[in-house]
UniProtKB/TrEMBL annotation:
This is NAD(P)H-dependent D-xylose reductase (XR). Substrate binds at H115. It comes from the Eukaryota. Residues 23-305 form the NADP-dependent oxidoreductase domain. Belongs to the aldo/keto reductase family. Keywords: Oxidoreductase. The record marks K82 as: Lowers pKa of active site Tyr. The keyword Oxidoreductase applies. Transmembrane segments: none annotated. The active site is at Y53 (proton donor). Pfam families: Aldo_ket_red (PF00248). InterPro entries: AKR, Aldo/ket_reductase_CS, NAD(P)_OxRdtase_dom_sf, NADP_OxRdtase_dom. It comes from Rhizophlyctis rosea.
Amino acid sequence: MTSTATHLTLNRTGDKQPISGFGLWKVPKESAADTVVNVLKAGYRLLDNAADYGNEKEVGDGIVRAIKEGVVKREEIFVTSKLWNTNHAKEHVRPAFERTLKDLQCDYLDLYLIHFPISLKYVDPAVRYPPEWYYDGKGPNCTLENITIRETWEAMEELVDSGLVKNIGISNFNAALIQDLLKYARIKPAVLQIEHHPYLVQQDLIDYVQKNDIAVTGYSSFGAQSYIELGVDHAIKCPPLVQHDVITAISKKHNVTPAQVLLRWATQRNIAVIPKSNNPERLASNRDVFSFNLSADEIKSISALENGHRFNDPGFFFDIPIYA
């Protein structure tokens, strides 16, 4: 199956999530506002952010500037953020959300996700914000907390009831966790966000959630690039996808960039993408994923590059093997 859709229709609300968006992970604070204005001027309408990225206040400054300058109206932007692991307790979900809402300077969010299916000990924002993967701030360490996904999800549902967020979803969940969540969810997750590239296709998971009317957003579309500086060993050793013979041959055939091929491989399979770039030319080309179509054989050949390489796994750094 291939798709030419430019949006994904979300369950329950019918809201339209753009299939091509911009991810704000690792966008520096000092340039975040300008970046947001520039990407909105370039035509992007999906902004994917998270409290853990540490730049939501600056992203909010950019949104406000873009609206004041007449680049967009608020209702034309699809704004996503995520709940961090230290705020999974029922009493912490809404304050965490309200901090994000205030920082982003929005009256509502279009989508709010549970960032990871991991509950960590609460860290007071007055002590450290964002808390990241630390408890005491002295070194990389995690202190697990005994909080169920059900407790967290029910607090997420209350955010919908309050009118503060239109859609809620999950990120980095596997099929077993989703199956369990669907048994008690009053509001079905609208979106699952996962690491997704030809080295980690996860087609069985994608098929399962799409059959359950849950939209999929893929991050790290270009593979290892964002993880090399984090010291992920197999990311450093992994052949870059944008230089892979299969990808470059297809890009030459269609007269597009290898990055465009990787993004089109996802969007043609109804998976939203959220790449980022500070380069104006790449900003434009990364958004141009509708002017060409890959053949069924090309999609198959790209998917055949699967080798199980996952680059975003807390288990690399801490004893939390959520994908084991």
